[in-house]
């Protein structure tokens, strides 16, 4: 019997719906919100209002593109958290109502686990290349930087994480200091390709174990610019490409050093990357380089599955459905938690 899952993602500022049947992706629709660009960051109230406007047409379009009638759905999977509470409430409320109206099970999905399981999304007529358990996954996004030991589809252990800011936050906040548009990460990535990654040196933290810290790097970057601007008011504009390249290299070096140590200590050679920052070309190239030098089997997601999307929610829902792991309609969304 076919298992057809509707996935709904609304954790931040992207409204997304996806349909997966027997693990194969049939549709993945995303409605982004440009309203936040002028504010230099996501405004929670505006995000939740936009989700309310987008969710019905996005779900309708996902079902239409998949060629699936709602009566064919086996379950509704939704992002329960972590994320912006107002945004999550929109997706959670819709998912609950939709599932109840169809009298089908409801599956709650952890947003972070969904990013990891994006590696198991199968596309039609494409030979799947998927990691084998156990594997390590570096999860890097605007709000999270974690090293995860993945033992099964729903068996994951966070062995290292940031103790303050995430890598994505470091990219965006340093970009803001340089006067780059929001979100700053992609602009840094673009300019870094034109710059010298060895032009400038920034502080790297010394944190025990596999944990990360990026607050010191942000402070180091800010003070460096402040001192240079006193000497040359045009310093940022004249050195923007080199600044971006050097900053990007520093962040990637911090990320990869911990991951390398974890892989060595745990004797794991299957290594994956996930999350929004996994779209960064420098990080993707670093994974390829480490894979060659360290004999890792490396797994890098398609760009479409790096940012927040419902396909990763649907595939997680698919595995939880097969395990009979459903949730009660009374469960509320949550804004902060890891695993």
Q: How would you characterize this protein structure?
A:
It is a single chain. This protein has 339 residues and is of the alpha/beta class. The chain folds into two domains: 142 residues, ATPase, nucleotide binding domain (Nucleotidyltransferase, domain 5); 168 residues, ATPase, nucleotide binding domain (Nucleotidyltransferase, domain 5), CATH 3.30.420.40. It is 42% helix and 18% strand. It has a five-stranded mixed beta sheet, sandwiched between helices. The two termini are 31 Å apart.
How do the helices and strands line up, and which of them pair or pack?
Blueprint: E1 4-9, E2 15-21, E3 24-31, H1 44-66, E4 75-81, H2 85-102, E5 106-110, H3 111-117, E6 135-140, E7 145-152, E8 155-161, H4 167-177, H5 184-192, H6 215-231, H7 235-238, H8 240-266, E9 270-274, H9 281-294, E10 297-299, H10 310-322
Parallel strand pairs: 1-4, 4-5, 6-9, 9-10
Antiparallel strand pairs: 1-2, 2-3, 6-7, 7-8
Estimate the mean pLDDT confidence: 94
How many independent structural domains?
2
What is the helical fraction, as a range of percent? 40-55%
**What is the CATH topology classification name of the largest domain?**
Nucleotidyltransferase, domain 5
Q: Can you tell me the overall shape?
A: globular
Uncertain runs are: none
Q: How many helix segments?
A: 10
Largest β-sheet summary: 5 strands, mixed
N-to-C CA distance: 31 Å
Strand order of the largest sheet: 3-2-1-4-5
Please count the beta strands (DSSP E, at least 2 residues each).
10
Main structural class = alpha/beta
**Rg, alpha carbons:** 20 Å
Please indicate the percent range of residues in DSSP E strands (runs of 2 or more).
15-25%
Order of helices and strands: EEEHEHEHEEEHHHHHEHEH
Query: What is the name of the CATH architecture of the largest domain?
Result: 2-Layer Sandwich
CATH homologous superfamily label of the largest domain:
ATPase, nucleotide binding domain
Classified by CATH, the class of the largest domain is Alpha Beta
């Amino acid at each position: 019997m076919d298992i057809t899952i509707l996935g709904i993602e609304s954790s931040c500022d992207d409204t997304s719906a996806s349909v997966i049947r027997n693990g194969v992706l049939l549709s993945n629709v995303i409605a982004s919100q440009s309203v936040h660009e002028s504010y230099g960051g996501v405004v929670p109230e505006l995000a939740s209002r936009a989700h309310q406007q987008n969710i019905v047409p996005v779900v309708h379009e996902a079902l239409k593109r998949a060629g699936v009638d709602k009566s064919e759905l086996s379950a509704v999977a939704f992002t329960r958290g972590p994320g912006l509470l107002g945004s999550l409430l929109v997706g959670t409320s819709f998912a609950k109502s939709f599932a109840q109206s169809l009298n089908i099970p409801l599956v709650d999905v952890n947003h972070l686990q969904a990013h990891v399981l994006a590696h198991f999304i199968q596309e039609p007529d494409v030979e799947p290349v998927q990691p084998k358990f156990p594997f390590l996954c570096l999860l890097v996004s605007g709000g999270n930087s974690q090293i995860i030991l993945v033992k099964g589809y729903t068996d994951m252990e966070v062995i290292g994480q940031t103790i303050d800011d995430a890598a994505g936050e470091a990219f965006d906040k340093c970009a803001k200091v340089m006067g780059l548009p929001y979100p700053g990460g992609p602009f840094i990535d673009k300019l870094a390709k034109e710059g010298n990654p060895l032009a400038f040196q920034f502080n790297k933290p010394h944190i025990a174990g596999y944990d990360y810290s990026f607050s010191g790097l942000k402070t180091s970057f800010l003070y460096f610019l402040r001192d240079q601007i006193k000497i040359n008011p045009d310093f940022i504009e004249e050195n923007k490409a080199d600044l971006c390249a050097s900053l990007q290299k520093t962040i990637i070096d911090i990320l990869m050093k911990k991951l390398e140590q974890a892989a060595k200590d745990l004797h794991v050679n299957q290594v994956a990357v996930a999350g929004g920052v996994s779209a960064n070309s420098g990080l993707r190239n670093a994974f390829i380089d480490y894979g060659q030098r360290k004999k890792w089997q490396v797994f890098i997601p398609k760009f479409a599955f790096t940012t927040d999307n419902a396909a990763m929610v649907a595939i997680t829902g698919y595995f939880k459905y097969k395990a009979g792991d459903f949730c009660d309609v009374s469960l509320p969304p949550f804004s902060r938690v890891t695993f």
